Amino acid sequence: MIMLQLFLLLFSFNLQICLGDNEKTEGKMDTNYMNQQAYKSLFAAKRREHIETAEKILHLNDYAKQYKMVEILGETIFPAMKDSKEKLEKANYIPQSSPFPTDKNMQEALGVVLESIPFFGDVLLRLPDITKDVYKRHKKDWVPLFKWGMEFCQNSTFLFTGHHSTQLYLMSQEIGLIPEDPEYENPFRKSSEDPDIKIKLKTKSKKFKKGPKLRTRNEL
Ligand SMILES: *[C@@H]1O[C@H](CO)[C@@H](O)[C@H](O)[C@H]1NC(C)=O
C-alpha cells in the first residue's frame, strides 16, 4: 500500500514536472521565435527608411551639409552602440546561439547594433569619401566599436543573409577591414573614373555565393 502511494506520488510528480517543463520550454521558444519573426519585419521596414535617409543625404549635393549630416549620424549611432554593447555583453548575449530576447530593454539594445551598422553602411557606401574622413577623425572611439558591430551583425545569421550580408561584405571592403576584391568598385568614390558607367559595385560571386551581386546604384 505504501509502495503504491509512493509510486503514484512519484509518478504524478514526474508527470507534473514533464508537463511543466514542456509547457515552459515550448512557450518560451514560441515567444522567442515570434519575437524574432516580428523583429525581422520591423528590420526590413527600418532598412528601407535608412536607405531613404542615406539617399536624401546623397542628394543634398552640398559637401558641407553632407559632411555635417554624416558626422551627426555617427555621433548618434556610435554612442548608442557603445551603450548597447555593454548591455548585451552584461547579459552574455551571443549572436550565434542566444535566443531572441523577450525583454524589451534587451530587444532594444540588440536592435541598436543590428540597425546602426547597416545604416552606417548605407551612408558609407553612398558617400565613401566623406564617411571615411569623418570615421578617421573619430577613429579612436569608432573603429573598435565598428569592428565589433560588424562581427556582431555577421554573427547574427538569422538576420544577415542575402543582400543584408552582401552589404556587410561591401562595407568591409570600403572601410578596409578586408582587402578589396579586384572587381570591387564603388562609383560614389571621388576617385572613381566614370560615375555614370552602368557597372557599379561588383562582387565576385565565387567569393560570395550567398548574396546577389550588386551591379547598379539602385541595388544598393
Ligand atoms: C563572432 O563569432 C566569432 C566566431 O565564433 C567570434 O570569435 C567572435 O567573438 C564573435 N563576435 C561577436 C561580436 O559576437
From TrEMBL:
Residues 1-20 form the signal peptide. It comes from Amphimedon queenslandica. The keyword Signal applies. Pfam families: ERK-JNK_inhib. This is Coiled-coil domain-containing protein 134. Keywords: Signal.
